[in-house]
Amino acid sequence: MPQSREGSFLSDSMKELLGPGVGQISFERMQELNRLMSYYRCAMMEVVTKFNVLNEQFSLQFDRNPITGIKSRLKTLPSILEKLERRGYPFSLESIEENLNDVAGVRVICSFREDVRMLSEALMQQDDIILIERKDYIRNPKPNGYRSLHMIVSVPIFLAHEKKYMRVEIQLRTLAMDFWATLEHQLRYKKDFDFASDMEKELFTCAHLSAELDERMDGLRQLMQQQNEQTGSSSGEKPLRWTDQSHNLR
Ligand code: GTP
Ligand code: MG
Question: What span, in angstroms and rounded, lies between the C-alpha atoms of 57 and 63?
């Protein structure tokens, strides 16, 4: 069946966001939406660059990479609309900016827990970054065992004639935390899967094991650091450094 010129292929929420009809008004709104998403993309790039710079600097200082990978993602329009609806917010561009903190997301995977702390502090010392919210799920894990440090920050992007602050969600976690969260997400989001309480318990136990792994690896890192300080030596031949710049954050 052919679609009408009124754009019946658009969902109700999309129509509300873009305005009635498919004439000049919604075309302009579409352009505004594209512009807003582009601002979020720029803010996300700013944050990624900040972490790359910190990684570069700390790797010179400590002779190892505190960051093993950075992932970034922009929320899709359906996902933005779904969240506005779920939270009961209006469907408008202003509402997106005002009510959603995670349109732009950056996930930083660190080697050790100590790196998470060091990087978050170093970022917050930068005078152009404004902290909106901080949730420390490492100190206080979620009931299911999820651990990560979450920060919502406001970061300036410099446009042709203005400076605009955009919000970005940052998640900092270790490799072990990421391993657990990635697999937990895969299991939980299998829509046809009944998440039995036995599975939840098992996942919770796995979260404990991953926390223990982090603790023991941190112990080894401290030992190595102490030995280096005593002998005044660096770790010798530098290993090859790989960082994952893939843009596949879910
Ligand atoms: P959202 O509506 O999901 O954004 O929740 P929120 O605003 O309360 O934010 P919160 O800081 O709790 O979590 C935001 C993000 O953290 C999620 O979108 C996930 O990427 C991640 N996250 C939070 N809890 C879990 C969890 O239990 N498992 C996994 N795998 N990821 C989680
Ligand atoms: Mg989210």
Answer: 10
